[in-house]
């Protein structure tokens, strides 16, 4: 019976340690936990915030589809993915992925796979707010992100 | 057939509304047909869908390719390439 991933899309921040504890609570079969946290950068002072827009319903559904693939492919014992939306200031958290497995390789790969697919398939969009007050641009999708996903095929 | 369209990011901004219900002409069979049809609805649609090849589409909240048929879709999402994470 494969484990069910924990997926959340929320405006509020998350607590990394609380999420690790929730994932590993009562388990004695987990030998490796890998976490990835994505934060908002200030782009050398040019950025005052990122505005994260998402497709409610589909964002959760797509993250769950990706997570189920990751769990099956790397035989993960647990997978948590939390993505924030709304206005996020530099230094604040945007996304959290936690992958648990018996050994480190599956946990590293599971977390990496989840992030690579999430970036190109989960329906979220970033808009920049600039410190000079000018109206920011929507962030463009990067070819490098597309290639990062392709390497898992 | 009536279908609910939902728009996101700069597609939403250029069209000027987050969602709408439209009546699909019978000739609109595929996602590509839908994008071509929408471009005829006004300059705001023309601006949003100027380069249809970059536009991503989801039917009932699952990604689809442009050659796929719309079928009995209830909700069609239209948006730019995703930039989350």
Automatic annotation (TrEMBL), chain A:
Source superkingdom: Bacteria
Catalytic function, reaction form: 2 [molybdopterin-synthase sulfur-carrier protein]-C-terminal-Gly-aminoethanethioate + cyclic pyranopterin phosphate + H2O = molybdopterin + 2 [molybdopterin-synthase sulfur-carrier protein]-C-terminal Gly-Gly + 2 H(+)
Coiled-coil region(s): none
Region (Disordered): 127-153
Transmembrane segments: none
EC numbers, comma separated: 2.8.1.12
Purpose of the protein: Converts molybdopterin precursor Z into molybdopterin. This requires the incorporation of two sulfur atoms into precursor Z to generate a dithiolene group. The sulfur is provided by MoaD.
Name the record gives this protein: Molybdopterin synthase catalytic subunit
TrEMBL record, chain B:
Entries under SUPFAM superfamilies matching the protein: MoaD/ThiS
Top-rank taxon: Bacteria
Protein name per Swiss-Prot or TrEMBL: Molybdopterin converting factor subunit 1
NCBIfam families with a match to the protein in the record: moaD
UniProt source species: Pseudorhizobium endolithicum
InterPro entries hit by this protein: Beta-grasp_dom_sf, Mopterin_synth/thiamin_S_b, ThiS/MoaD-like
Pfam entry (one): ThiS
């Amino acid at each position: 019976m494969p484990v069910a991933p924990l997926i959340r899309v929320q405006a509020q921040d998350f607590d990394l340690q609380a999420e690790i504890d929730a994932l590993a609570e009562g388990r004695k079969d987990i030998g490796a936990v890998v976490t990835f946290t994505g934060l908002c950068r200030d782009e050398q002072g040019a950025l005052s915030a990122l505005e994260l827009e998402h497709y409610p319903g589909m964002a959760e559904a797509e993250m769950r589809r990706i997570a189920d693939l990751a769990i099956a492919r790397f035989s993960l014992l647990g997978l948590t993915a939390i993505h924030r939306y709304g206005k996020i200031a530099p230094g604040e958290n945007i996304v959290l992925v936690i992958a648990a497995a018996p050994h480190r390789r599956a946990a590293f790969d599971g977390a990496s796979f989840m992030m690579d697919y999430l970036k190109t398939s989960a329906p979220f969009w970033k808009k920049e707010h600039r410190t000079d007050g000018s109206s920011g641009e929507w962030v463009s999708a990067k070819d490098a992100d597309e290639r990062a996903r392709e390497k898992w095929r | 057939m009536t279908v609910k369209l939902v728009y996101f990011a700069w597609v939403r901004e250029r069209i000027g509304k987050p969602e709408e219900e439209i009546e699909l002409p019978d000739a609109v069979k595929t996602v590509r047909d839908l994008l071509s049809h929408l471009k005829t609805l006004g300059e705001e649609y023309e601006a949003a869908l100027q380069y249809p090849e970059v536009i991503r589409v989801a039917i009932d909240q699952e990604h689809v390719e442009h050659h796929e048929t719309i079928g009995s879709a209830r909700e069609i999402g239209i948006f730019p390439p995703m930039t989350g994470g």
